[in-house]
Design goal:
Layout: E1 2-6, H1 11-22, E2 27-31, E3 41-45, E4 49-53, E5 61-64, H2 77-97, E6 102-104, H3 107-113, H4 116-125, E7 133-134, H5 139-147, E8 153-156, E9 162-165, E10 168-171, E11 175-176, H6 180-184, E12 193-196, E13 202-209, E14 212-219, E15 236-239, H7 244-256, E16 261-268, E17 273-279, H8 285-291, H9 295-304
Parallel strand pairs: 1-2, 1-5, 5-6
Antiparallel strand pairs: 3-4, 7-12, 8-11, 8-12, 9-10, 13-14, 13-16, 14-15, 16-17
Helix pairs in contact: 1-9
């Protein structure tokens, strides 16, 4: 039995579950926002520990996609925060206590792997080229860094780029840094990542599933319209053969973070591959749909074997 941890609006989970149904494979989908309304979860501590999800107490593997929390309109803001904190702690305890053989991937490892500074350190140790990077609250140091790169400097968040407000999901993209912003903010700098801007020919999204690698070329610089962050606009993509050396590095990086899945972003310059970051739970259906790379079957095989 495969446990799929998700929420109701996760089209990636829908995509794989359609295949699980076609292959007649046994699974349970847990939409976390429906716990307490449509799903019953039990954790009981006595002489022995009992855990069940909708009466099922044994799973062979877990595919951890996303979680969501039910929004109770009757709660005020402070009570809502209290409710969210307790619910997240409950979920954390549930994942910890589930005894399963395989995770894709374990949520604590996913959370740790979101740290872009840790990613850069591990990638550098594995021999990837990385952009020159600075995190500083010192305006003088930032000005010196900025002036040392004529091609420019980019700015990005330290931990993921996704957040939610009352209107829904928001994404903070990588942007080109303008030094005039420093004066506008009265010389106050919030700790954030500044990197040299790398001149790129194209970009590569590498999806790792266990020991399999699926690479896609993203033509983000074509038609005389170079893009700072390919996620911000549509792009032509195609399957790509990454050199074996870099395939091995991508697998090593994913494993070093304790993950069995990773979506890695690389830049291709005239002569080199440059590591940017790894998304420990990145989207991939768009890649499979546009290139034919069979990522979904790799995920299903990992979870079902």
């Amino acid at each position: 039995m495969i446990l799929v941890v998700s929420h109701k609006n996760d089209y990636t989970a829908d995509f794989v579950i359609n295949k699980l149904n076609d292959q007649n494979l046994s699974y349970k989908r847990l939409n976390t926002e429906d716990i307490g309304s449509k799903h019953n979860v039990l954790i009981r501590y006595n002489k022995t520990k009992n855990i069940s999800i909708d009466g099922i107490n044994e799973f062979n593997s877990v595919w951890f996609r996303r979680t969501a929390i039910s929004q109770n309109s009757l709660l005020n803001n402070s009570k809502e925060k209290f409710h969210e904190r307790d619910f997240r702690l409950f979920l954390k305890s549930l994942w910890r206590d589930l005894k399963v053989r395989k995770w894709l991937s374990y949520p604590d490892f996913i959370g740790t792997a979101e740290n872009k500074l840790l990613q850069l350190e591990l990638a550098n140790n594995l021999g990837f080229l990385i952009p020159d990077t600075i995190i500083t609250t010192n305006p003088s140091e930032l000005k010196c860094f900025y002036t040392s790169y004529k091609k420019g400097v980019v700015i990005k968040p330290l931990f993921g780029g996704r957040y939610f407000d009352k209107t829904g999901k928001k994404i903070v993209f990588t942007n080109r840094f303008d030094i005039s912003q420093l004066e506008q903010n009265n010389h106050s700098i919030f700790p954030i990542i500044f990197q040299e801007e790398i001149e790129k020919i194209y970009e590569i999204r590498v999806t790792v599933v266990d020991d399999q690698v699926f690479s896609a070329k993203i033509k983000s610089q074509q038609n005389g319209n170079p893009k700072m962050d390919w996620r911000n606009q549509s792009n032509e993509i195609e399957s790509y053969q990454l050199p074996l050396l870099y395939e091995k590095k991508c697998i090593e990086l994913t494993k070093s973070l304790g993950l069995n899945f990773g979506a890695i972003d690389l830049i291709r310059t005239e002569n080199e591959y440059v590591f940017l970051e790894i998304n420990p739970n990145g989207q991939w259906v768009w890649i499979e749909s546009n290139t034919g790379l069979n990522i979904s079957d790799a995920i299903i095989n990992f979870l079902s074997q």
